[in-house]
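Researcher: Batch entry, complex prediction.
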Amino acid sequence: MTGLPAESNTLVAVPATHADQAHRLSAVEQEVVELFDQLRDRLLRYVLGFSLALPDSEDIIQETFLALFQHLRRGKSRQHLRGWLFRVAHNLALKHRRNQRSTNHVHGAIMAAEHLIACPAPNPEDQFVTSQTQQRVMAVMQALPEQNRWCLYLRAEGLRYREIAEILDMSLGSVSVCLERSLAQIARAAER
Amino acid sequence: MMRPQESHLSDRDLLLAADGELSAPECERVESHLAACWTCRTRKHEIEAAIGDFVRMDRHKLDGQIPPPEGPRALLKARMAQLAETQAASLYSRGLDWFRTISWRLSLAMLGTVCVLAALAYFISQAYFIPHIRDERQAERIVAVSTPDPSLTPGAIVLVSRGEVCSASVANNKTVSVALQRKVFGEYGIKSAAPSAYEVDYLITPALGGADDIRNLWPQSNRATVWNAQVKDVLEERLRDLVCDGKLDLATAQRDMATNWIQAYKKYFHTNRPLSTFR
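Model: Structure tokens for the complex:
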């Protein structure tokens, strides 16, 4: 029970100015919120690419920005924060998926979930994917090695090759090879 | 992808040029080649068409799933405020900094001494103190809880709009299942308590979009403390009225409840003490 608030009468004795301070966002908090507004949708789209449910993906984004908050509060580097955020979100998503897989291993629930993603049933979100080209592109995406898919998703979210290489812990050359091969497959699928 | 001819640009060069990843001289070489070569220009368009196909598919597949950011943003602000408050109260980081300023050898020696003293104190207390006195003290400490432990109960919300909150016919809190109540007691280290001693309460009430989630639940004491469950219920009603009257936005109400409901009470009732009815 460590860390519990003090007794009720102590709480009443909190100075009046403390309440005001609690509601005033610090400079770091403001900075985090600004980055959240800029990058939350991109990060969420990227994390959803890990076949995670939306609530889980939202949790990962929350954890990512709380990690940023801690990072900045400790006075650590403010350089390349966009790449840093994607790297943290990537690692958290991988960890979450690993835990989810081990939890659901016996019941095979994750397999079912992945099957649903690979072969989506008609629902309001997917019904518009009517064109054959888009269906073929989606099929190619599902067949790509995961590393290639991540490269494409990260590039689509506007990250530079160097950032992608750092996030995925691969060489700059490998990033361009991944992108080149993946786009070639998509181009071939679209031509059919 | 194979290069059509040795004299033509490779797909990689074309992609790197399209993505702005080439150095200035390389970029100039690619541009001058493209200006003169229909084959490579066509290939460049094919690559860009593939990028377009991918982006369209990706956006169409996911954009409908992305919920608005207001709720998650409010939750993030509340969690940052809690984190800052918790850490400010903790002497841990200060102690760590102090340890960093002295040599590691000295730190190690002092740490060892502290550990030995702590172990001695523990064994002495085990041997000489009467267990039930310790239990009573523990009970007193637990019973005094008026606000939740932010690390266990940071607050959690469901993504609902103000309209949905206000159109809900029943504004009362849902009953928390017995299994979930046990889990909450377990998290807070409460092994046994009279059923009337606690109310497992929502930090952010479902009537304001609070989630039916363990991160949004904590054992609130029913003992006649100043800031008790009844006082919090009054605040919840007040906030819901303000939200539904359009005088307060939902995210702010949720954030204020999650940050510190007692401070929120003081803020919205303009008083430092609860209304006398509930004392």
